[in-house]
Design a protein that fits this description.
The chain is mainly α. About 50% of the residues lie in helices and about 10% in strands.
């Protein structure tokens, strides 16, 4: 399942964080951007499975280019 793979990737990334950073990320959550963030309901599914806040960026498909343009 598509969303399940993303949950596993994010969980792996969070688990790889140092012990002082890990709780901060678990409390603050993660931000989804890019095309995958536009998948209907992926934020809710990931939030449930990861047990942490999951947010979707405004215009997620443009986040990278917008960031580059601000330099």
């Amino acid at each position: 399942d598509f969303a399940k793979k993303y949950v596993q990737i994010v969980q792996s990334l969070v688990n790889g964080l140092t012990d002082d950073i890990k709780p901060l990320v678990r409390n603050s959550g993660v931000m989804l951007c890019g095309g995958v963030a536009k998948t209907h309901g992926i934020d809710v599914q990931m939030q449930t499975q990861l047990n942490m806040p999951v947010y979707v960026a405004n215009q997620p498909e443009n986040v990278t280019i917008n960031g580059l343009l601000q330099k």
